[in-house]
Amino acid sequence: MTPLEMSARDIARHVQSGALSAVAVAETHLARIAAANPTLNAYTDVTAARALAKARDIDARRMRGEKLGALVGVPFAVKNLFDVAGLPTRAGSKINRDLPAATADGALVARMDAADAVLLGALNMGEYAYDFTGENVHDGASRNPHDPSRMTGGSSGGSGGAVAGGMATVALGSDTNGSIRVPASFCGLFGLKPTFGRLTRHGSFPFVGAFDHLGPLARSAGDLALAYDAMQGPDPHDRACAQRAIDPTLPSLESGIGGLRVASLGGYFGAGGEAIVYEAVQRCAAALNTKETVEMPEVHRARAAAFVITNVEGGQLHLERLRKRAADFDPATRDRLIAGNLVPGAWYMQAQRLRSWFQGEVAKLFEKFDLLLAPATPCAAPAIGQQTFTLNGQEMLLRPNIGVYTQPISFVGLPVVAVPLHGLGPLPVAVQIIAAPWREDLALRAAHFLETAGIVRAPVAL
Amino acid sequence: MCMFPLSSSAYGSLVLDKDAVESYVDHAVAALGLALDAEYRSGVVANFERTAAIAELVMLFELPDTVEAAPVFRP
Which residues of B touch A307 (CB under 8 A)? Predict the structure, then answer.
């Protein structure tokens, strides 16, 4: 197995032992980026000099017998809304390219770096994260490594493409309404959207303060846990960041599913998608030994409220840019953001109050169950540029429906691990393993169990 | 509940009057002092109509008075 296919845990172990040099791992990945990125368009910036300097430093420190971090030598990359010292934080936009270069790394980039992971660059994304497709009018679409004519899913599209395409072992993304879980589904990867407030957002470009989450995509549950544990911890610079101590998830990762009460979500989550996504849920449910199905109440209203809040907060964030540089936006993003500024305050406040109400209803489900299963997307990756999809013989608009299953969950900040199933159709799809707030550990445990059982996996498309 | 003229559809939901939406968009844009390029107007109106239709699901749900929003603010 080459370093391009290795897990982060194996790379760190081999670099730690000296079986692999950090420089060799970095060089192999940089060569892969040079070969594959012209097609896949995952990277917008490659920080090769920085990567090689970091890798040389790691190898020198190992030779001196110094202590090395948990992610030593692991190549990673970040959605280009994370600050990377020396780069303007473009957030998928044309406008932000005129910003001065960031003078420091964003907090999570710095935490990964402190754990001795090796940053390879910044990744393509939908403009200002208002996107589910992975397409970008300024940088071009990121392309799905399993079929380059297909979408990666957005808005963390480059994050999905980089990890599925063997161009990074771990990528960081953001998820406001599904932007980690959708690329995990379309690119066939593991993705973790932690509890709202768990990981600091300091030093990342915002979209919707009420819903923005950051998290990792990787090719195994163990790699998610490794990166996630390294990134946890309080940060007073992010107002929404819960000032909680680190809850490590790696120690319990292999504890199995004994004692876990699992159910599939039915009703809203059991309709509106292609058959393959329900088959995926069914396979996970069977492996997790559950036949129970439960329903969340008023999910369609929860999603509607998330839509309204997103429109208002996202729109207001960009109001001054809409005034001064409207022509420099992607036209689709621009019109949506302008409209968001016109929404009556009453709609917004009712949506926010509905969020509190829905949170209370969802909490009742977690009195009976530890984990809930649902599809991540209503379909596998559509073709780039595709506008509609056919469901039960009916043609439906694609873009507004990609996030149908993810949006109500992030609305109330629940932690989710997206787990990928390959082989049910020509392209993979993911299932959401949803836990109660602050119980990322349980979702990761179940994800690891499914991986060990051979139900879920994330092969590299080379 | 809604500032637009409404009519009930067969499903009991509320349907916005298209002219009223256009007029609202024009006035709200003016109130914000946003010079809306003529080229953008139809896209903005279409987006606002979509948001309005979606917001109905939120506005037509009765919430107890005691349910408060949960903004993050720590003085």
Answer: 51, 54
pTM for the predicted model, two decimal places: 0.96
**pLDDT for res B5:** 38
Task: Please say whether the beta carbons of A176 and A170 come within 8 A.
Answer: no
Q: Does A357 touch chain B (CB under 8 A)?
A: yes
**What are the tens digits of pLDDT across the range A350-366?**
999 999 999 999 999 99
Burial (CB < 10 A; 0-12, 13-18, 19+), residue A414, is: buried
Q: What is the pLDDT of residues A98-117, one digit of tens each?
A: 999 999 999 999 999 999 99
**ipTM score assigned to the predicted complex:** 0.92
Q: Do B48 and A357 touch (CB under 8 A)?
A: no
Packing angle of the helix pair B38-59, B18-31 (nearest 10 deg): 110
Helix (H) or strand (E) holding A338: helix A331-340
Cis status of the peptide bond prior to A155, with omega within 30 of 0: yes
Backbone angles phi, psi at A193, to 5 degrees: -100, 105
Work out whether the CA dihedral A145, A216, A194, A213 comes out positive or negative. negative
Residue type at A140 in one-letter notation: G
In this complex, the residue of A301, A334, A351 whose CB is nearest that of residue B40 is: A334
Cα–Cα distances in angstroms (integers) from residue A276 to residues A158, A379, A447, A452, in the given order: 25, 7, 19, 22
Give A68's contacts (C-beta < 8 A, 6+ positions apart).
A15, A16, A58, A61, A62, A116
Q: Is A230 a residue whose pLDDT tops 70?
A: yes
Print burial letters for B21-51: b (CB count within 10 Å at least 16), e (below 16): bbebbeebbeeeebebeeebbebbbebbbbb
On average, the pLDDT of chain A sits at 97
Backbone angles phi, psi at A294, to 5 degrees: -130, 165
Over residues A302-312, the mean pLDDT reads: 98
Cα–Cα distance for residue pair A459/A457, rounded to 1 Å: 6
Contact between chains at B70 and A359 (C-beta distance less than 8 A): yes
